[in-house]
């Protein structure tokens, strides 16, 4: 169902955010570096990449879990992606001013996304238990937390335990759209009256040989800028040659509007519409016309009850692959018509790489901050724009722009497309 919600349903706002990214470990540093076009793409040094074509990634440096409120058990037993999720959640909850005293824990839910979950933890544990794959696997010495390392639900359950959240709990694994899907699912959960507050977003730490190799072997990763990492991710440029794998996390506090107003919560934006489709075409390939991404965008606009000309900014998927960037440009033109040429469209992946499920969660944070500050961060590394990608992609320098409503889109392996519409919250019309 593409348009199943109605205007009288409960309104949902963003009241808190937390981010862990290659170019910022909090909202302030992330926004400052994002606006300045500072890249977080670096040479991989965590493991030997000499046998891989690609040797660079969007890497989070300086992350110390203890500085973000994680306890000793969480530091010792959890995969890096789950640590990111807890750290960003603590940040978002503090940002929102959420406490045990102003939220009913039975009305507090969790929806977190990840594409590969604890793959890093499992790979490292396998190598440890088998002498780097040379010995049979033995249960002797296997840690008790092996199961939690294998489960996709670990980050969600750890957040729930930390916050004593007893409302709905979900984990999504829809690949590269999963962060947006988690936000959309949490949005719908609150609209349906099943929760008043949802902690939602996505986390990913895929910088491990088996995950890195999986993308490298199919030629998805760019490998022509290993000696110049910051220039590697170049969406919409004629020379683009693949995406840069990255790690990051973006977490949101989503809240029913009257609940947020009652506790005098900060309000960044109002979520207005969500749509998701599938092209049922191919695991990795995209057809250039962008029809199915267009359908997701239309569904989100219909859900938001907004016409295309009400969109003032698009934070794009912009993965820097030859296929995606043309597909997305055509989808935007189909959806927005001539208006597509009048608004700024940017790709955060040019700066931080592609963190799979977490990519669009972090990009949504960038877009919400653009809404707040009325500034659009640049798509860096655009030296020679592809003639087929002829929109205003905010090349290399931030642009000031009046923004009321934002469209965020995402596409993923296996053909999923998702779109989210959000904008300024008019609290004056609350209760009408």
Topology of this structure?
Blueprint: E1 12-20, H1 27-36, E2 41-43, E3 56-58, H2 72-77, H3 80-96, E4 108-113, H4 119-129, H5 146-150, H6 154-163, E5 169-172, H7 178-191, E6 197-204, H8 209-217, E7 248-256, H9 257-262, E8 269-278, H10 291-304, E9 313-315, H11 322-336, E10 345-346, H12 349-352, H13 359-373, E11 375-376, E12 399-400, E13 405-411, E14 416-423
Parallel strand pairs: 4-5, 4-6, 9-10, 9-13
Antiparallel strand pairs: 1-7, 1-8, 2-3, 6-7, 8-14, 11-12, 13-14
Helix pairs in contact: 3-6, 7-13, 10-11
Q: CATH superfamily, please?
A: Thiolase/Chalcone synthase
Q: For this structure, what is the CATH class?
A: Alpha Beta
Biggest pleated-sheet summary = 10 strands, mixed
Which strand order spans the largest sheet, edge to edge or round the barrel? 5-4-6-7-1-8-14-13-9-10
Notes on the structure:
The protein has 432 residues and is of the alpha/beta class. It has 13 helices and 14 strands. A hairpin with a 4-residue loop joins strand 13 and strand 14. It has a single domain, classed as Peroxisomal Thiolase, Chain A, domain 1 (3-Layer(aba) Sandwich), CATH 3.40.47. The N terminus is likely disordered. The two termini are 27 Å apart. Helix 3 packs parallel to helix 6, helix 7 crosses helix 13 and helix 10 crosses helix 11. 31% of the residues lie in helices and 18% in strands. The strands form 3 sheets. The chain has a 10-stranded mixed sheet, with helices on both faces.
């Amino acid at each position: 169902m593409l348009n199943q919600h109605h205007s009288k349903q409960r309104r949902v706002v963003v009241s808190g955010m937390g981010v862990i990214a290659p170019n910022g470990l909090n909202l302030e540093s992330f926004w400052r570096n994002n606006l300045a076009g500072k890249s977080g793409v670096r040479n991989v040094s965590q493991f030997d990449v000499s046998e891989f074509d690609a040797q660079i990634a969007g890497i989070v440096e300086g992350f110390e879990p203890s500085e973000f409120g994680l306890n000793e058990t969480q530091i010792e037993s959890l995969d890096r992606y789950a640590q990111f999720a807890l750290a960003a959640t603590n940040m978002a909850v503090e940002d929102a001013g959420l406490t045990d005293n102003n939220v009913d824990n039975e009305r507090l839910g969790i929806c977190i996304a990840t594409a590969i979950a604890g793959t890093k933890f499992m790979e490292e544990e396998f190598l440890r238990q088998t002498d780097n794959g040379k010995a049979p696997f033995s249960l002797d010495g296997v840690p008790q937390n092996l199961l939690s390392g294998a489960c996709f639900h670990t980050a969600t359950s750890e957040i729930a335990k930390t916050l004593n959240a007893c409302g709905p709990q979900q984990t999504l694994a829809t690949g590269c759209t999963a962060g947006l899907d988690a936000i959309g699912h949490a949005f719908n959960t609150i609209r349906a009256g099943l929760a008043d507050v949802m902690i939602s977003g996505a986390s990913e730490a895929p910088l491990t040989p088996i995950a890195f190799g999986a993308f490298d072997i199919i030629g998805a990763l760019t490998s022509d800028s290993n000696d110049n990492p910051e220039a590697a991710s170049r969406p919409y440029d004629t020379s683009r040659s693949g995406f840069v794998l990255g790690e990051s996390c973006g977490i949101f506090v989503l809240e029913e509007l009257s609940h947020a107003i009652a506790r005098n919560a900060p309000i960044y934006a109002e979520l207005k519409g969500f749509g998701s489709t599938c092209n049922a075409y191919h695991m990795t390939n995209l057809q250039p016309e962008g029809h199915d991404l267009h359908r997701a965008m239309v569904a989100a606009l219909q859900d938001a009850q907004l016409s295309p000309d009400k969109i003032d900014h698009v934070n794009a998927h912009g993965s820097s692959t030859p296929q995606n960037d043309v597909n997305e440009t055509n989808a935007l033109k189909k959806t927005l018509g001539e208006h597509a040429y009048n608004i700024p469209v940017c790709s955060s992946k040019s700066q931080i790489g592609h963190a799979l499920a977490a990519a669009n969660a972090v990009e949504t944070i960038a877009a919400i901050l653009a809404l707040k500050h009325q500034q659009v961060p640049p798509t860096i590394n655009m030296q020679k724009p592809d003639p087929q990608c002829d929109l205003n992609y905010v090349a290399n320098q931030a642009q000031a722009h009046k923004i009321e409503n934002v469209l965020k889109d995402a596409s993923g392996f296996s053909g999923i497309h998702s779109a989210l519409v959000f904008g300024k919250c008019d609290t004056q019309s609350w209760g009408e």
